[in-house]
Amino acid sequence: MSSIEDIFEGLDLSKLDLPSLGFSDQEPHELIKHRILVETIKETISMQDETIKETISMQDETIKSVYMDDFDVTSADDEKPYIGTTSLASCAGIAIYDPKNKIGGVAHVFFNDKISMSHYMRDAQGRDIPSSGRSIVVDNPRPFDPFTYLAEALVRKADSIGGEKYQFMAFNVKHGCRTQEQNIQLQSVVERTVQKLTETDKITDFEYRNETQFKLDTRTGLIIPYY
Q: Is 11 exposed, middle or buried (0-12, 13-18, 19+ CB in 10 A)?
């Protein structure tokens, strides 16, 4: 099969109206061929980009996207039976799935290892002096608590649309963009959360997964790439 370069190498420019195409009759034919080739490739790439955008747009019509520090649920009979999230990086993800009722949910858990506090000087009576206030940034002693909050909220919301018992998956916990100490601390929080939900008879299975972007198909329970 001929390559696109071979096709343009054999192009007979004498049959083309070069001025109408924006070229001068005085330009070397090899240069003209090169310019036509480049423009054709650029147009081809542009068309491919549009096709990719249309494909992603069509996918988005069937996906509930969950953004940072948020959660949502869906079901197999919803117009958007897929639910997923991307760009976990230093964040963690949660997916739950009820195979009996085909209901699932996803959370994107954001962690903040620093918190801002207001500090005031005090007067002789021990009262804060408003004009002395200044903001200071300190280490957050419990940066991974949001995992528990969002996991419990996700289960409650799935229950509200008919969910009962769930498979529980935690994403990007052991290998996220965090220090080893932070990963160990997060893993401890995850396991305490799972234990608590298991004791309330809400979790049937638990699994760690390493994906940093994914979507859950509530029709099958499969975890697949988001894109």
A: middle
Q: Considering just the CA atoms, what is the radius of gyration of the chain in Å?
A: 28
Which pLDDT value is given to residue 113?
77
The phi and psi torsions of 130 (rounded to 5 degrees) equal: -50, -40
Q: What is the DSSP string of 18-44?
A: TGGGT--TTS-HHHHHHHHHHHHHHHH
Q: Which of 153, 185, 151 is nearest to 168 (CA)?
A: 151
Q: Which domains does the chain have, with CATH numbers?
A: 4-59 (no CATH), 62-224 (3.30.1330.200)
Q: For 47-101, what is each residue's pLDDT tens digit? A: 655 654 555 555 567 899 999 999 999 999 999 999 999 999 899 999 999 999 9
Q: Token match 């420019």: residue? A: 13
Exposed/middle/buried for 19, CB within 10 Å: 0-12, 13-18, 19+?
A: exposed
